[in-house]
User: Fold these one by one.
Assistant:
Number 1:
Amino acid sequence: MPELPEVETIKNDLAQAILNKKIVSIKVIRKNILRKSVKYFQDNLVGNKFVEINRRGKLMYFNLEKDDLFLLAHLRMTGQFIYCNKDKFIAGGHANSKKEEEQILQGQVGDFCQAGKYTRVIFEFGDKSKLFFNDLRLFACLDLVNKAELKKVLDRFGIEPLTANFKFKDFFSILQNRRSKIKAVLLDQHLIAGIGNIYADETLFIAGVMPDRPANEVTIKEARKLFIAIEKILKKSIEYRGTTFSDYVDSKGEKGSFMKLLKVYGRQGQECLKCKSIIQKTKVAGRGTRFCPKCQKS
DNA sequence: CTTCTTGTTACTGA
DNA sequence: ATCAGTAACAAGAA
């Protein structure tokens, strides 16, 4: 699942690949991926150019050169952006089988810029390169909005980690004002933007806090540890180009490597790397939650 | 066959 | 007002 570090990785890669290239066509294979009509997308995108790519939480938005428009892209759980040009032979992301995936990676099958099984939208640029928007589950979406609509969308997000707006004072006051579980607070995009299930579990482990603790009962000392862990882990994960658990790949179709550094996520039943207790899995805030019963204080 | 998974929103009931 | 819980969305893995 793409969370902040994964979206950041894709954003940075795409900025290298597609900025200032003329969009010559947009092919929509599944129109329910779009929040507006196919015609509206085509009318406004074809002949236009992406001039900037930004990110807020897990949402990417592309500034267009003409008409003050913005393309919004949310990958949800299984969305992918795959970019390819004539140097890179890859089907549009999701292969139809493990074997085919191997073959694609080895360049044995797949025509130049061929759509994959889960390709939903294809952007074609003036230099013949293509950008595939793939999504297995059809939860991901694209929208095309003006400045006012963009502002409305962005205003709903909470504080953005890894920016100057992420201050301990604000973070702590968010925690102090909620009685809900600390994990629910970390996951709430309206409070803190960009943290999903993987990084919520990881930061809680690093900070030594049980996921089901009421947020307002987290001590200032623990909150400080959490605050530092959030910054550190997100930054580290960006360095490692994200975490690949099931579907996440970057815009070149390659997996992230932060999995190596995961301490609890996906490690249920295995020994805690710190104290050798068995990592547990429960449900907190409606989400699968992994934790160490000894290292994390309740 | 059922159950679980994931992000987000919307809803219900306390 | 606030919060917890759950359904919904889709599709595949176990």
Number 2:
Amino acid sequence: MSQFTALPDRASAWSEQLRTAGRRVTKQRLAVLAAIDAHPHSTADNILELARRELPGLSAQSVYVVLGDLTELGMLRRFEPPHSPALYETRTGDNHHHAICTRCGRIEDVDCAVGHAPCLHPHWNDDQQPMSIQIADVLYQGICQDCLAAERQDGD
Amino acid sequence: MSQFTALPDRASAWSEQLRTAGRRVTKQRLAVLAAIDAHPHSTADNILELARRELPGLSAQSVYVVLGDLTELGMLRRFEPPHSPALYETRTGDNHHHAICTRCGRIEDVDCAVGHAPCLHPHWNDDQQPMSIQIADVLYQGICQDCLAAERQDGD
DNA sequence: CACTAATTGCGAGCTAGTCAAAATAAGTGC
DNA sequence: GCACTTATTTTGACTAGCTCGCAATTAGTG
């Protein structure tokens, strides 16, 4: 079936996904996808800048539209850390989480500890109507090794 | 020690906390705290409206300043659900989480499942510098009972 | 009760994102 | 390969939510 696509040709895989979803395959969409794939956890602004290197005429609004649409389709994942514009990544469907360094802002992916999402079973209080949970977005906040080291040097 | 403060006189407790933190006890701060306490998960706008009932002259900017400062002090907790302005609550320090209904936007508190935060121990990939984690903010996204029921009625 | 630094109010300004309508281009059939 | 249809992109104006600097006010201290 895919004997000639052993190497991950993301672009054609994306094209297929787009078509399957009833969307047209435009250079704008591919440029946005490629930009995010190359630099995960990018803001709409970063993505615009990156994508423009391949597609100089690309407009900011197109990026917003594409991001919104592809996120809805599930081809992108969007997450919004505090005090930051929304970030996007192409890694979807694996329910992975994020760790953000409150000092320098660095963001790392964290695999969902176990194969099955461990946090999908909240503990409801007696007076609450439980919800049917679909996603558990976990945002770890801490300090990364670099900042810890820098802090030690600075005396404190 | 507290034999005369059996009833939770939040206002005086807040005053004490403020003084301890080196802040002055102003009616603006107390009005904001009272508003949030009465209506947890409020936006800055809601808080302004509520607080103005007690303090008609209160300005929006003061609310923002107070919210930012008190959040930094740890007297308020701030969280930013997707597609929503920041929300505030007075319940701090217990590492509880939030569940949001993606349909109607309703938000519920969810106690941290176990006494010890279950999610404070992420699983790091081999090539990653682990961070020193301090908080794990969990945002459950799902559909609440009401919306589920409404959906069933609507045919789908 | 006066003093002084902290707090609040006011206005301008900024960033991230949205909306409507016209211009463009992807996919379709001939 | 060409014309057609309609999704997509662009253009440009606009909004929400929040921040900044400076002047006016006020809480807390002695």
